[in-house]
Amino acid sequence: MAKDVNPPRGNRDFLPLEKQKREQVLGVIVDTYRQHGFQQIEAPVMEDLARLTSGQGGDNEKLAFRVMKRGEELDRALADASGADNLADLGLRYDLTVPLTRFYATNRPKLPAVFKAIQTGPVFRAERPQKGRYRQFVQCDIDIIGDATELAEVELLNASLDALAAIGLDGATIRVNHRILLSANIAALGVTDADASSAMITIDKLDKLGIDGVAAEMEAKFGGDVAAKTAAWLKSIEGPIEVPSELANLFTIVGARHPGKLRFDPTLVRGMGYYTGQIFEIEHPESGSSIGGGGRYDGMVGRWLGTDVPAVGISIGFERAVDLVGDDLLSEPEGLVLIVDDSTEALANALKVQAELIEAGEPAVRLERRPKKLNLLLENLATQGFGRFAVVTADTAAAADLQVKDIA
């Protein structure tokens, strides 16, 4: 019986051209963020499990991959009567925000007073794999720590919209709400502070359940009076909604640079409990799900420092975004294949010519022994991003001697 050679469930392989596209798209996003004054950092993919499960990560904490203790520590844990809860001390990061707050607390003396960070990389969640949801996926975040003013939100939204446009997703828009406004609306429905989180979970299902479905779930949780007020509220905000004064400046400033790209949505929740102010969600007409989001989380860094530091961030959901990017963003095939005759002299010349071409700025120079069927080799390499070829013989002394041809 043939063995299963597929990657683990929820994980994927990427072929060369797929990887090339992903790297190019990610590179365009990161370059755009750098142009806006953000700086790239890197933190470990593992963090202390106690930190990852400290209550800051919301429901994602339940999805953290745990890393078992090692060596003698594991032996002692296995002998301990306290059970399985004592077997792990580390976890794989499930987002980039919790590790960033730890990074900032560790390195604060070395960082500018207002720190503008770019983070990209894989994150891991132990959830049920399905279309658009993976156990390993890439996130692309920008965050501003140390600025309590609205300038931070303005910069994040402006840079994100510029980055999305740069990868061809200029149809993207950003829904905006404010946690204080959301909490006030929920309180007006008759929901107590203790039950507000539960009500938010239900309201967050509006796009799936519709008004009647949300009202029914609210009735099951809180009774008929709350359900009736919920239905009336949701019906009253159908159609265009006036931007509240708390968000007016944000809409005016960003709207001057990106007209029509922000939309106030009083039902926007964002699931993470650490948000304290403005919250955002990026949407695109060709995607059935959001392609990013974020918000202000002023109380999060203080968990590690003992003093609060203002912070706000936004993330592009890279996996969903890259699926929307057309192949026209990819560079034209530029790679050059050197077909080497079967002789010692030709091979030595090929190495010399390859080095000369690389120094001259060729993006990719690949060596291949001359096969019996050259056309088959060239056809295959054309699908891998190589657009030109030349033959190297014992008489090819320099790159100037090459006769470079396009691969038809």
State the secondary-structure class: alpha/beta
Strand content: 15-25%
Give Rg in angstroms: 27 Å
Overall 3D form? globular
The top level CATH class name of the domain at 333-406: Alpha Beta
CATH names the topology of the domain at 333-406 as: Rossmann fold
- From the N-terminal CA to the C-terminal CA, the straight-line distance is 42 Å
CATH architecture grouping of the domain at 333-406? 3-Layer(aba) Sandwich
Sheet of most strands:
8 strands, mixed
Reading the helices and strands in chain order gives HEEHEHEHEEHEHHHHHEEEHEHEHEHEE
Helix content: 25-40%
Question: Low-confidence stretches at least 5 residues in length (pLDDT < 50)?
Answer: none
Note the total helix count: 14
**Strands of the largest sheet, in order across it?**
1-5-6-11-10-9-7-8
Mean pLDDT: 91
Can you count the beta strands? 15
CATH superfamily of the domain at 333-406: Anticodon-binding domain
